[in-house]
Sequence to fold (156 residues):
Amino acid sequence: CEILSSLPLQMSLYFNVYFFPFWWLITVAILYLKYPVLSDYYKFILVTIMILVSLTELIRLYLGYVGNLLEKVPELAGFWLLTLLPQLPIILFLLFNEGLKIHSLERAVHIIFAAFLSFQVLAAFFTLKRMVNTLATRFRLTEQFHRLEEQLPEPG
Fold:
């Protein structure tokens, strides 16, 4: 039995669990400070983003832990998709949209969060690839073993 879990991915998830509340507090505090000077559509966008990121991040981290530690392909694939599609584009939007009047502390925590997400996308992809290849090989070998068992004559 070969261990298919990724230690770098697991370490990244571990540190992300502790970084996310810090990121959330900084982002909400700065949003509270700059809220009066933002335009109405940016106010709506930022509040929606904070709700979406908060909910998605909890689900994403759970799927990452379960998928990586228990070597479950569907959960790890869900983690990879949630990282790649909603989370990474949202953080890049928060990082590079100058209409949001980005504070330097806010930019710093967004850069760290974007680095976590970028690393996790790559690490999860390679871990998924290795898991799928190993599971497919096991399936083929089991299937061939059963075929050979059916072809063998009964003893005695």
